[in-house]
Structures are given as C-alpha cells and as structure tokens.
Amino acid sequence: MKLKLTFILFIVFNFFWGQDISKESSVPGSIFSFDFQRFESQFRESRLKKEKISKGSITLPSEDGKSIRFNLSENNLTEQRVNSILTFDGVSNDGSSSLKLSIFKDHLNAIIKNENGYFIVEPYKTSPGQYRIYNAFSKFDERFICGVDENDVIKELATIKQTLSAKSAVNFPFGNQIRKFRLAVATTGEFTQAFAGNTDDALAEAINMVNLINKIYESEASVTFGLIADTTNKTLIFTDPATDPFTVDPSFASAANSQTGFNTLNTNTTLVYNKYDIGHTFNILSSGGAQGQAGPQPCNNTSKARAWSQWALTMPKGIVAGLIAHEMGHQFSAGHTYNAVGGSSGSPTFCTSGWNAAAAIEPGGGSTIMGYSTNCSTPNNQTNTGNNNLNYFNAKSLDQILAYLQSPANCYTIVASTNQPPSANAGVDITIPKNTPFKLKGIATDPNDNNLSYTWEQADVATANDKGAFGSTITGTGGYTAVNSTTAPLFRSEQSISTTERYFPKMQFVLNNQNNPPTNDAEALPLVARNMKFRFTVRDNNVTNGGLDSDEIIVTVSNNGPLAVSYPNATGISVASNTTVNVTWDVNNTNTIKSNVDILLSIDGGVSFPYTLASNVLNNGSYNATIPYIPSTDKARVKVVGVINPYAEFFDVSDNNFTITSDCAAYSTYITPQSAVTAISGSPSANLNMTPPPSANAAYTSKIFVYNVGTSTNNIIVYSNSGMTAPVSASSNAVTNTFKFRVTDSGSYVFSKSSGFLITSIHSGSPASLANFLTSNSYYNGSSYTSTGSAKAVVLNEGVDYYFVISNFSSPANATSYTITAAGPGSLYETSATPAGYSFTFVAINNSTGKIQAVSSTANFTALPAGTYTVKGISYNSTANVSTFVGKSTSELIALNICLNESKNSRILTVTSSLGTKEYQNISDIKIVPNPVKDILSVITEKQITHYELYDMSGRNITGRQKYSGSINFTSYSAGSYVIRLFNKEAMIYKTIVIKK
C-alpha cells in the first residue's frame, strides 16, 4: 500500500540488551584445503607501497561447493594500512556474490554474501591449510541475557518524536548512499593477554571482526564503520588488566562499564570524544561462550560507547559476528523483536525482562537478527521450528535503526554510491475472513540488480497484554492466546529469492489439514476479527551496499468465515475424468467479502493447481464441476479461491487426496535445465537445444524403505576419517541396496537418516566406485565403521542420475525400516520408462496471453518474436497433432479431449528484438581489442559506456548488468565464443561476438 501521511513516531525501548551464547557448539559447513602462502604471495610487493591495492583475486568454494572467483580491492576499513594486515572487498565474476576478506600473517578470514545469505570462511582448527565455510547464522546452543541501565540521559531519550511526510514505510527506500561512522574499538587487558600479550594479534582479531560485521551492515542498512587511528595504532589495545580503564564484570558483559571506560579515556585525553562517533569494547572470556550488552546512542558523548562484546577465542567467527551485529543494532535503538516470556533453565526470566514494548513483533522467540531464537524455552518452549536464525533485520528493526539515523545518530559522513535501490509494493489493503488461509503477492523492481530477495513479515507489535501470547496454546499476560487477540503477532518472518508471494500459513500445513499449524511453527491464523499489518521488503543484494525498499498492507480480518471445502474431503473418494462432481464448501458469510470464487484442481497433492474447474462462479457453497480429461492420479485436490485482486486471495483446499481414473496416460516430467535465457530473436541463442526427459514419479523429501535382500555384494565406499575429507574403498564385501534418483533443483543437499546403524553413500554412477563417489554419512578407521546421522553436504544437479548405496551389514538382509530425509533447494524423484503411444514436445507460452506461441521437440524457438515466454514440456498422446497446440492454452487443449501432461517445472525465455538499429548501433568508432582475448578486453571509443552484459552462446547472461570501468577481465572464463553488449545507461549501443582463447 503506497500512501502519503503525516504522523508522530514514538520509539520506546529497554536501553540495554545482552546476548549470551553459553558454549561453543560444532559448526555445520564444509571443509576445504587452501594454500594460503601461494595466495598471499600476490600481495607481497604491493603491500609495501602506500597506494591501495586495486588488483587481486581469490577463488573460494561457495556454500554448495562451487568454486567462485572474487576480484579483490583493498577497502577503507582502516585510515592507514596496518602492518601484516590487509582487508579487502571482493566481487565475484558474475556479480552475484561479494565478500569482506581479512589477510593476516599466516591465515585469512572472510564473510561471503550472496542471495542465500552470509557465509563465514575461517581456518579449521584441526589441520594446517584446512578451512571451513558455513552459514554465518548457523544454529548454535545460544542463550541471550538482557541487562538494563536506566541512567538519566538515556531515560530522556526513551521517547523520540518525529513528524515525517512519508509513505507507509518510513525512511524507505534507501541504498543510494552509504553512511559512514568513525568506530573506536577498545580492547581490555584481558583481551590482549588472551593472545599472550601480542598486541598485533589482538588488533588483528579486532580488525577481523569489524570487517566481518561491516558486510552485514553495508548490506542491511547501507551503514559502514571505519576504525579510527587510535584503534589501529594500538593506543586502544590495552595490555594490562590492572591499568586499562575498563572493569570486567565477572557475571556478564557490561555496557555501562564500557561507557565508563571511554569516559575515563576522554578525561585523561587518551581518546577525546570528538575523535569518534561510536565506541565498542571487546573482551576475551577465559572459558567458552559469547556475551554482549549494548544500548543507544552513537553521536552522544556520554552514551556513544555503551557496548561491550566478549567471547572465547575458540568461538567460531560466525557466532561472534552475529553477536556484535546484534549488539550494534541495540546501539542504533533496535529492540528485541521476540514476543516471549520466561527464559532458559539457567536464567528463567531473561526473556521476560528483555521483552521490548516497541519491537515485540515476532511470535515466540523470533528468528531475525534482533530475535532470541532458541533461547525462550522455559517454562514453555517458545522456539520457532525450522530456520530460526535468519540473517537479516526485521523491518521493525530497520525502522528503528533508520529513524535513529535521521536523529539523533546523524553524525556520520556520506559516501557516494552508484547503487539504485529497489521498489517494493505490497498492494492495496484487503479484507479476508477469519480462520481462512490467504495469499499475498508483492511487486518488486530494481533498475540495476537482478539478485533480489523478498521478505513478508507481520508488522503488529504486541501490547502489554499480548506479552508472551503465542499461537493457539500459550496465553500471554492478558490471559488469552495469540489467535484470540486483536493485536498479537501471529506470523513469523519469511524470505524468498524466487517469489514475491507468500501463503499464510505455508501450504504444507494447509495440505496436511492443519490450517492452524502447531504453535511453534509460528503460522497461526486469527480466530477473531482484527486488523493485521504486513510488510513486504525487497533487498537488492547489491555487491557494494544494500538497497532496500519496504511497503505495508493492512489486512482486515472479518468476523465472517471460515471458508472451508466440504466435498471432496473424505478419504476413499474416486471419480472418473470427463464426469461431473458436485464441489461443496462452507460459505459462512464469506460471500459478503467476495461474491464469486474460482475452483481449481491439483493432481499432485496440492503442489500445483494447473486446472481450472470453474471461474468466477457464485460463492454459494456448491458447484457441479466437470473433471477434465487428464491422467489418472491418486493425489487429486480441490481448491476454492476468493480472488480479491491479482495480488491477494483467500482460499481453502480439500483435506485429503482423492482418485481420478482415466485412460489418459500422459506422464509427468521435470525439464532441465531450468535456468532463464535471454536471446535475440532469430539468433542461435534462442535454440535451447533441450532433450526430452524421462517419466518422473512423485517427488518426495523423505523416503521410508525396508532393507531387504541386497541388490549386490560390493565394497562400501565411505570417508577415511572423522573429518570426512577423503573417501576410501573399505573391503567389507557387504550386501548393499542401491536405488536411483534425481533432484528437482540443483544445489547443496544434506541427507539424514533415522536412528540405527546404516551406511548411506551417494554416487554419480553405478556400480559404485571411488571415481563416482560423492558423499557419505560414514567413515572407516581401518578396523570399524562409524555411521553418523547425516551425510556431508553435496552439490547435486538437476537432470542427472544419482545412486544411493546403503548397507547395515546384515546378511541376509534383516528387513529393518529406515527413513532417509533430504534437505536442499528441491525434492527427489525417481524416473521410469515412458509409456508406449505417447510423445513429448516443448512449448513456449506467451506470458502476455497465456497461449502457446510455438512448439518444438528440441526447444528451438529461434522464430519467436520479441517477448517473454514460459517454456514447458508436454507429454501427449501421439495421435494428437502438435501444430494445433499453437494459439491455445493447455486448458483449452484439455477441453478438446487432448490427453497431455505439463512438466512440473519451466524456464523463462526472454526474446529481445532483432539485431537492428532500434536495439543498438554497430558503429565503427567502437573497437573491442584484442579479439580473440586471453585475459583483459578493452573498449576503444570516445562514446560513454556505463555498463556491459556478457552472454554465452546458449543465450545465458553470465554476468548480469555490470558497471564498465575501462576494461573487462576474461581470465576466469573458459575458451569459446561470447556475445558482449555495451550500454550507455539503458540504451544498448554496441554488440559483437568475442572469442576467448
């Protein structure tokens, strides 16, 4: 909802917050070898010069195991370079990932940012030359403790009044400039003693942590921190606990003690107030754990250093970076976002005492940076299930931070940025029935970034009576549950990189007949009339600094409802295709909200609803619908939908699968690849050259199987050590079971098993061998096997056959049942032979009309005019004439009794206009040299070139829209031909083919 309004913004918060991670836990991730000395050698000469290093590179694995090359440039974290320490910014060749890198005398640390989040690279403690990469916000055994220090100055700042002319989300969009603060980090004597008194090592630790958290703040808030000279020249790196100005509180981190120490530094002129904007004290704990406490505000002399973070040296850097990011959020006024009470067994009241009346916006323990995650577990467990360590700020946290940056924390300097922020639109305000699932869909655009991510969050802050109310079972201070409140938060924060829409609750609950899911899932539908606010936030994930926009929609919940499908609802229902079924539903006065509904049909258990049984029929509770001529299925579902507008709907789905019988045997498929393609009309790039896929069985993420008679007797291939770094063929000569599978989406997968001893290894070929080994959950020490709960993460690609080889060493097989579960970007499926009498073709569906524009058995769409198309596969009865498909939708073809089955997935084909002067001018005063090129490509011209794009010969854009800076580095590209397009702002002015040697 976009609107203009004038309002008074009140911010009320507890002023000091603490975070305590009680002990070090094992960190998930992948281990890899890295030759640091060879890498570091590229800087040995340039680091002796005063000039910033502008050329360098590093290749690191991504979280899913792919190698990514980053181009490096020395950043401005420090005013002057510190001996033996280099800090870099890095951008991947394709422009989709960025990093902050710190190089020390014998190792490196890094934080990588991409559309999937933040990932830490750090030395692996068990072996020289070994590093690990893991999600920076991975789950740990965390515990947060809050402290309060209400001195007079902070009390006076408790309520901030601002009158702003704004849209529905204040201070958005942002990202076209960076706010830079002068950061003073001081370390205690205990901190330096933990490094055996070596001030260089102590400073290196401090610099590394600030470099890491800069990536988070630059991406999330377009804020960066520059370390002042008094930190980097070691004036603030204290060596003696007896003489430093800081008092270590033995019970917890103390923000007040930090500020007191900085006040002393001002008094004795070691560090006067005007030399920094924000201060933070670092301390090292003698035993495991991490703690912090902080409060506002930067820019105020006697409160700008109210922040203390401390950790054990053994703590993974991801934990520490998360700790400091959380505490600095408090310095900028961001309060705790959870709505929970209690605490943990050791601190049973810290969630109660840390509850924030201005920010309690997330149900239960919350899940974003300013939440408490797993820490509010007693007397009631208020932990959100699933991913409860999200790597971004809630929109409410951003509101508080951005408001503070307006005033009073406005002592920053502006750093120019060429980024243009995205635009977010949540849609117009709507009304829905109570206790009824609904869907919201936002609109997002961005002028210069393609790696957008989309977040939907409820924006209602809990009242004092809502405090602790959670879902349908846990009552709050007012004595009622959240679902019966007119104000309590009900829905958790969720982010997607693939869609702007969100279902409330998730479809997995609706399809499991759980419209009101279990409380800890934090997806509760309201049972009473109320208003709910939702925020749609778009992040551009720009590699330099983040651009964000956010918009709000008000969802009015009517006292009417719920809408509920009543037939076909029971188990055991079977109907034939081309017959009529009376679909019924309980209206419950929902017709006063939407007088007409659509009725949709799924044949895959509700994963998709491709068939329309009725459109815009009366919402009167009954409709005689004809089941179309579609393949047989035992996973049919009906969905009744009240479409409010193209971006919002309410609905219900029948409770159970029912059977449709048919003589149509068109088979299910998954086409590969799924990647989007941009091609010029008539060019070879528009020939996608795709291969018909095999028949696909139902997809799954969890499979129960019985270990029966083995399919073969083989050597088992597992890892040779507990670090799972190298495979070994162990001479077990054991009975094994093997089954073949594919994945629906490429990416990193982790396979886990149910309890009991079971070796599970995955191979890319059969029979299993060392050459085709990919991963295992087990290792062999030369005399015995150890079977762990899950296999090491592995990257699997769509369209490739993989093989599970499993064994529990029983001989004969003992018929034990096991469950294997896959966690990754997609699902698993098994293939089978295609039925006789059926053929396959690819179709290009015009997105503007919904009609098939072209058909091709090889996806050759060179004849398509300019436009955007969805490419799908269709299996069909061979008697059909595919030329008649053109100009019709698949629904229209089915209505003609043509037996067909659309692929479960698709890919987008964008066709641009032909190579004429409308799109570009092939002018002679632009020269590309050298061509062929080995490494650096230059453009010789007097014309202005702002950006470029590079395409491979399949039409895939491999760079995105990149800023042009005088040359283009081809070093990392493989030999072959590429199409380069040069732009002056939005106008393409030149295109040619470049050959890479």
TrEMBL record:
NCBIfam families for the chain: Por_Secre_tail
Family annotation (SUPFAM superfamilies): Metalloproteases ('zincins'), catalytic domain
Lineage summary: Bacteria, Pseudomonadati, Bacteroidota, Flavobacteriia, Flavobacteriales
Keywords: Signal
Gene Ontology MF term list: metallopeptidase activity
Species whose genome carries this gene: Chryseobacterium carnipullorum
Domain Secretion system C-terminal sorting: 929-995
Gene3D superfamilies referenced in this protein's UniProt entry, alphabetically: Collagenase (Catalytic Domain), Immunoglobulins
Protein name as catalogued: Por secretion system C-terminal sorting domain
